[in-house]
Design a protein that fits this description.
The chain has 356 residues and is an alpha+beta fold. 38% of the residues lie in helices and 23% in strands. It has 9 helices and 16 strands. It has helices at residues 2-31, 63-84, 92-99, 109-124, 134-146, 152-159, 191-205, 304-317, 319-328, and strands spanning 40-43, 47-49, 52-60, 105-106, 167-170, 175-178, 210-215, 218-223, 232-237, 251-257, 260-266, 271-274, 277-280, 294-301, 333-338, 345-346. Strands 1, 2, 3, 7, 8, 11, 14, 15 and 16 form a 9-stranded antiparallel β-sheet that branches. The protein is globular, with a radius of gyration of 23 Å. 43% of the residues are buried. Bound molecules: adenosine monophosphate (AMP) and magnesium ion (MG).
Amino acid sequence: MAVRRNKRITVVILVGVFLVLAVCFVLRTKQGSLWPAARIELDSGYHEVMGTFARAVVVAMDKETAQKCTRAALEQIEMVDDLMSDYKQDSQISRVNRDAFKQPVKVDKDTFEVLQKSIEFSALSGGAFDVTVGPLVDLWRCAAEANSAPTEAELQRAHATVGYEKLILDANDLTVRFSVEAMRLDLGAIAKGYAIDKAVAAMQTAGAIGGMVDIGGDIRCFGAPPPGKDRWLIGLQDPGKTGDLLGAAEPLLVLKLTNAAIATSGDYRRFALIQGKKYSHIIDVGTGGAGSELSSVTIISGSATDADALATAVSVMGARKGLALIEKLPRTEAILIPSPRHKFFKTSGAEKYIEY
Ligand code: AMP
Ligand code: MG
């Protein structure tokens, strides 16, 4: 009898606690004050880096912490660029591109981690995502400068030096090796996402209670939104209305993000014109061709690295295969805008991120 009475008392207490918590939650949500009212916001403004513009917005409890956070975020982005740019002759990736066929090249932990992740995404996407795409990127860049599409022979020659299975990583001594001469890595499809994740981690360590990092339109938000707001809202650009370089055009959709990242790949802002025909900067490694049936691919994920790599992968895979891949991945959604524009496809869970 006593046991049954104790049980009843426990149930009554639990129900009581639950009701109190539920009332508190409703009240706080109504007031929009889940976050400390005294928080402040600091915007770093746009900085030119990684061939684009980067910006960190910090939410913190005081100005000094906020300044420390924006500095830490921008330092991390510069650090990733210094390691992984293939434009900077003294970057680790440039060194790998010069020497990795002759001998294994030692790289640091961050570069190695990005290469490991790259191989994972190559396998996951059936080779649609491939950071060994460098020779094909160079070929199409030269073709654009000469205003003449590459010949079949040129495409075949470049193709022979491309393929993630030709990239050999040794996790014991953090070295990278090429199994074929004239290979070239290009981390343009993943390094921005990785830099965003590093910047967010640095801001959190430095004391931010919330923030947003934007590199070239790839964005991750976390924690407390700016004062006066109850969530982070991010505009998704309409590929039909490109606006200026910083994307200041009317958005097609506004997304609400909580501790999530978005990355967009597409041919609407970066492309080459060869004899009046538009070619995407994203290359289908299978065919060597530059182009995509999709104008814009946006991926929402917990990690900016993953979102960045997957956005490029889905651009190559196309709508049908791309949506099927993203549907399989946990906590990952896609919004695809096919050419020519306007109607969009999305994965089954994407709706919850759409504010309007
Ligand atoms: P994103 O804007 O993230 O889609 O990255 C595009 C950049 O990644 C291009 O400018 C190339 O430097 C590189 N790239 C092109 N095609 C591929 C591909 N199939 N896989 C990985 N990287 C690629
Ligand atoms: Mg990408």
